[in-house]
Design goal:
- By secondary structure, the protein is an alpha/beta fold.
- It has 2 domains: 216 residues, 2-enoyl-CoA Hydratase, Chain A, domain 1, CATH 3.90.226.10; 232 residues, 2-enoyl-CoA Hydratase, Chain A, domain 1, CATH 3.90.226.10.
- 35% of the residues lie in helices and 20% in strands.
- It contains 19 helices and 18 strands.
- The strands form 3 sheets. Strands 3, 4, 5, 6, 7, 8, 9 and 10 form an 8-stranded mixed beta sheet that branches.
- Helix 14 links the parallel strand 15 and strand 16.
- Helix 2 packs parallel to helix 4 and helix 15 packs across helix 16.
C-alpha cells in the first residue's frame, strides 16, 4: 500500500545507527521562543550525514556562505544535495548563496542528477539589500532549468523557512515536505506583527497549516526524511521491462443500461486504485493543489508497479460516500498532469465519481474552466496515458480525466453526461425515469466498448496487468526521458 507518514520506517538512532542520531544537533544555537512563548533550541542538522549514503557525499568546491551543496547518493540514487546553513546569518539568501545554489543546480542538469534541497532560511539577507533580494530570480530560474531537463526537485522545508527563499526556489519543487511545527510564510510572524499586519490565524504559518492548504505534500519528521526521499527516487528509477505484466483476457459480457449503473454503486466493490496501491513496489501519496486547496476525494500517487514508474490519479470514496471532486481536486489533477509531462511518466487516471461537487463556491472558483483545462492538459501530454472507468463515470468530473490514449473499464461501470436521475429531471422534471434513460443512452462499459468509446473491458482483478500492458504498448523502447525519469549520473 502507499506510504503515509506514520508508516514510514524510522531510521535507527541508538547503538548501531549509521553516523549520529538523526535527531542530534551540530553546533547548537541559543534557545529561542515560539509565538506561544514556549522555548525551543534551534538545532542545526548535518544534512549530508542524515540523508546521504555512508561515504557517498562529496562537497562542491568553493565558499559555502549560508548555503552549501555537494554530490551524494541516497538509497543508491545519485543526487545533488543542497541545504541552507541556518547557523550562518539565519540561512539568508545572499549573493554568494544564490550563486552557489545556481552552480549546484546547473551541475545537476549536466550530470543528470535529481536535486534534493533543504530550505531553512529567514529570506533575503537584509545586509546586502536589493542585490540579495534579486537572487530570487536566478535561483528560481535554476529550478526551472532542472525541471525542464526532466529531473525531479525534492525540497524539505525546515523550521523556519520564510521570505524570499520560500517565495522562490523552495516553493518551486515538484515534491515538498515540511518539518512538523515549522514556521512557514512569506512574512515572518514577528515582522508582520511589528508593522501592524499580524497574520491571523497564526496556524496558517505552520507546516500543518501549509499541509491543510495544499502547499506541501506531507509533514515529515527528520528521522523519516531519508526514507521518503528514497521512496520517491526508487519510484522514479528507469522502467524494468523484464517484469512482464499479468494481463488477462477481456470480459465478453456484463451488465448493460441501468443494471450497470446499479452495479457501479455497490458498496462492496474493490476499487482498482486499491489494487494498484496494494501491488505497487513503491507508492508515495502526494497532496494539495499548491493554490490553497486539498480534496480528500482525489488520490494522487507516485507508484512503481511491475517495475514501471507511473503517476496514478484517482477518485476515492470518502466515508463510503461517492467521490464528488472539488475545484481543488481538479487542480491537483492538473498538477499531476504537469508532473507526468515534466518527468516523462505514464499517467493513469481512475474514474469513479458521481459528478463534481456542486456549490456556489465551486462556480465562483471556476469549476467549468477547471474541467476544460483538465481535458486540454491531459490531451496535450506526450507520455502514455491510460484512463480506467471503475464504477461511476458521471458528468464533467469524469470526462475531465478521460482524454487518454487508451480507455479501459471494469464491466460494472458506466459513463454518462450526468447521473441518470439528474438526466431524468432534465428531460421529465422528475427522477423516476432514470432507469429508462440509462437504457436509452446505453451507458454501460460493455455498450461503450461496442460504440468504440471504451477500448477494452477487464475484470477488476485483471486491471493492473491490463494497465501495465497498455503503457508498454505506448512507450517506445528507450524513448528519452520516458525511459530515464531521474537520469543516470
Amino acid at each position: 500500500m502507499c506510504t503515509t507518514e506514520p508508516e514510514l520506517r524510522r531510521r535507527p538512532s541508538g547503538a548501531g545507527a549509521r553516523g549520529r542520531s538523526a535527531g542530534a544537533g551540530v553546533g547548537g544555537a541559543p534557545a529561542c521562543r515560539r509565538r506561544d512563548g514556549r522555548r525551543y533550541s534551534r538545532r542545526v542538522f548535518d544534512w549530508p550525514d542524515l540523508l546521504a549514503d555512508h561515504g557517498s557525499f562529496t562537497r562542491l568546491s568553493g565558499e559555502a556562505d549560508s548555503l552549501d551543496a555537494g554530490r551524494a547518493t541516497i538509497a543508491g540514487h545519485p543526487v545533488m544535495l543542497v541545504w541552507c546553513r541556518f547557523e550562518v546569518a539565519a540561512g539568508t539568501l545572499s549573493l554568494a548563496a544564490g550563486d552557489r545554489f545556481c552552480t549546484a543546480l546547473d551541475l545537476a542538469v549536466a550530470e543528470r542528477r535529481p536535486v534534493v534541497a533543504i530550505a531553512n532560511s529567514g529570506g533575503a539577507r537584509m545586509q546586502e539589500g536589493t542585490r540579495a533580494f534579486m537572487q530570487m530570480l536566478p535561483t528560481l530560474a535554476a529550478v526551472t532549468r532542472v525541471r525542464r531537463a526532466g529531473l525531479p526537485v525534492i525540497v524539505h522545508l525546515a523550521h523556519p523557512t520564510t521570505g524570499g527563499v520560500l517565495a522562490s526556489w523552495a516553493s518551486a519543487a515538484q515534491f515538498l515536505t515540511a518539518e512538523p511545527g515549522a514556521t512557514l510564510g512569506f512574512t515572518g510572524p514577528r515582522v508582520a506583527a511589528m508593522i501592524g499586519e499580524p497574520i491571523e490565524p497564526p496556524e496558517v504559518q505552520t507546516a500543518e497549516g501549509y499541509l491543510a492548504a495544499g502547499h506541501v505534500d506531507a509533514i515529515c519528521v527528520v528521522h523519516d526524511l531519508r526514507d521518503r526521499i528514497g521512496h520517491i527516487l526508487s519510484a522514479l528509477a528507469p522502467a524494468d521491462p523484464s517484469l512482464p505484466p499479468a494481463a488477462g483476457p477481456e470480459v465478453a459480457i456484463g451488465p448493460t443500461g441501468w443494471d450497470a449503473v446499479v452495479a457501479s454503486r455497490a458498496p462492496d466493490r474493490t476499487p482498482v486504485i486499491d489494487g494498484l496501491a496494494s501491488t505497487a513496489d513503491v507508492c508515495v501519496e502526494l497532496s494539495g493543489d499548491r493554490s490553497g486547496g486539498t480534496d480528500p476525494s482525489v488520490a494522487a500517487l507516485l507508484m512503481r508497479v511491475a517495475g514501471r514508474p507511473m503517476l496514478v490519479l484517482g477518485h476515492r470514496r470518502v466515508d463510503g460516500a461517492p467521490a464528488r471532486p472539488t475545484v481543488a481536486g481538479l487542480r491537483l489533477g492538473r498538477r499531476m498532469m504537469r508532473l507526468a509531462g515534466e518527468l516523462g511518466l505514464p499517467l493513469v487516471t481512475v474514474v469513479d465519481t458521481a459528478g463534481a461537487h456542486l456549490a456556489g463556491e465551486a462556480e465562483r472558483l471556476g469549476l467549468p474552466g477547471e474541467i476544460a483545462r483538465s481535458i486540454e492538459d491531459m490531451g496535450a501530454l506526450v507520455v502514455p496515458t491510460v484512463a480506467v472507468v471503475d464504477g461511476q463515470g458521471a458528468g464533467g468530473a469524469a470526462i475531465a480525466w478521460m482524454a487518454a490514449d487508451t480507455v479501459l473499464a471494469t464491466p460494472d461501470s458506466f459513463v454518462a453526461p450526468i447521473a441518470p436521475e439528474a438526466g431524468s429531471v432534465i428531460l421529465h422534471r422528475d427522477p423516476t425515469h432514470a432507469a429508462e434513460l440509462a437504457e436509452l443512452q446505453q451507458v454501460s462499459a460493455i455498450e461503450l466498448r461496442d460504440a468504440g468509446i471504451v477500448d477494452a473491458v477487464h475484470a477488476a482483478p485483471m486491471m493492473v496487468g491490463a494497465i501495465v500492458a497498455a503503457i508498454d504498448r505506448m512507450r517506445p523502447a528507450g524513448a528519452g526521458r520516458q525511459s530515464d525519469p531521474v537520469g543516470q549520473a
